[in-house]
Amino acid sequence: xxxxANAMADAVRPxxxxxxRTRIAVDAKDDASPVTIADREAxxxxxxxxxxxxxxxxxxxxxxGLHQPHSEFVWVLDPIDGTKSFVSGSLAFGTQIAxxxxxxxxxxxxxxxITGERWLGRAGExxxxxxxxxxxxxxxxxxxxxxxxxxxxxxxxAQRVRYDRxxxxxRFSRASHDCYAxxxxxxxxxxxxxxxxxxxYDILPQLPIIQGAGGIVxxxxxxxxxxxxxxxxxxMAANPQLHAKALAALRPD
Length: 253
Fold this sequence. Notes:
The protein contains 8 helices and 15 strands.
């Protein structure tokens, strides 16, 4: 199944590259988030490959929804995570693929189609970056930590208060990197990734990658992420010590 994940990422690279920085038309989905022909073409290509190789598997795709969602194995597809970055010509986006077994992510892949960077995580194995094992940072102090979030405006007002309190204690913060930030966390150049009100297809591919590199993933209360379509809060940390300090800073008033 790893071979299929890699093959799907290989297949959609040229589809996405063809549309990159071309002033592509942008449509709005029901939730007002943007979508393009590149998103749709890439997801359809991956769906076709899954159906040809594993017809009994389920699919959960951002653009085309559910297919056989109660199957033993379910693929989670996010063809372009960071569509706003993609349509504005930024490299801070990627293709995300996860494989769930009985609802648990056992494989995760992030691919940056333009730069050719790829992260692969498998349950119980070391995370690979372009085939080489990587590890999260050993940064244990908030004052030395780098924190990323996809978009501060995703936070509800009370969440924003909590996030800002954490962000004031770190070395510096950055936004608008979506799944690419998770890749940087696995590489050890980013120490914390904090999200709010994100979909499962945004996060599930990242779990095996972060965990296989030595990181910790929970909600803002320190609990494992549940099997839900929407995650209210997500905290990814490079190591247990930094995770504990971030949780304390995120504690509600």
